[in-house]
Amino acid sequence: MPARPHNTALATILLIDDEPDILELLKYNLNKAGYATQLAFNGAEGLEKTRKIKPDLVILDIMMPGLDGVFVCKAIRAEEPIAHTPIIMLTAKMNEESEVLGLEAGADDYLTKPVSPRLLVSRVQAVLRRTQKLVDGPQVLQFPDIEINREEYVVRLQGKPIKLPKKEFELLFLLASHPGTVFTRDELLEEIWGSDVYVVVRTVDVHVRKIRRKIGETRIETVKGVGYKFITPTIG
After folding, report:
1. What radius of gyration, in Å, describes the C-alpha atoms of the chain?
2. Residue 216 and residue 206: Cα distance in Å, rounded?
3. Domain range holding 127?
4. Quick check: is 126 in a domain?
């Protein structure tokens, strides 16, 4: 279902962390910026509250006892109607492997502790803007043998539904929204992951390979040395 508009006055943010001091600091600064906040003190509580209140965005710590943040992120991504909730990972682990792990689990952004309140609010605003951008414009793309439905986040290939993870779906939808237009890898990173998130260029290639395995090799064409474009399917 389409998300409601994300403006500061309406957006509700769920904070999930096992450190009360961190939660209170984040809550204070987000409330000050005009956001409504809810708190959860462990992964299980956070997952349950996500289901209950369906927040506009989740800020999720990775290192927690019991259900850790990667598990919770994957659980959210696997469950309708919360599967497309924007998620920012927040952790003290400062290495590329942890960042990649969080992003591959389905996070939209990744911040390391300690994070400045100003930077946190800026990232929250950026993620919500990208999310809103995705719900503007046509929600269903219809081609001769494939339908890409953003209201349901499902692809139907010759009538057969195929579920794609969030970033794969967003990447496919962006390319298919402009058939024949070549997007550079940098442009795709900017549009899908945002300029504030450090993601290597090969991430785009990995996502394209996964999409091709699910919907066929011919629908996304590689433009050597440049990037990718969507080829309009034809019948006959």
Report:
1. 18
2. 15
3. 12-135
4. yes
Residue 151, burial from CB neighbour count under 10 angstroms (0-12, 13-18, 19+): exposed
SS3 90: strand
Distance separating alpha carbons of residues 47 and 17, to the nearest angstrom: 12
Model-level pTM?
A: 0.66
**What type of residue sits at position 62?**
I
Number of structural domains the chain divides into: 2
**Max Cα–Cα distance, the chain, nearest Å:** 63
Compute the distance between CA of residue 226 and CA of residue 213 in angstroms, rounded to an integer: 21
Assess whether 144 and 56 both reside in one domain. no
* Cβ count within 10 A of residue 230: 23
Domain boundary among the residues 135, 165, 186 is at 135
CATH number for the domain including 58? 3.40.50.2300
* Nearest Cα to Cα of residue 155 among 225, 39, 233: 233
Q: What is the pLDDT of residue 94?
A: 61
- Are 18 and 123 within one domain? yes
Q: Which residues contact 157 (CB under 8 A, 6 or more apart)?
A: 145, 146, 215, 216
Tens digits of residue pLDDT in 122-173:
889 888 887 776 555 578 999 988 999 987 888 999 999 998 888 899 899 9
User: 51-102: per-residue pLDDT in tens?
Assistant: 999 999 999 999 899 999 999 999 999 898 898 899 999 877 665 566 666 7
3-class DSSP assignment, residue 137: coil
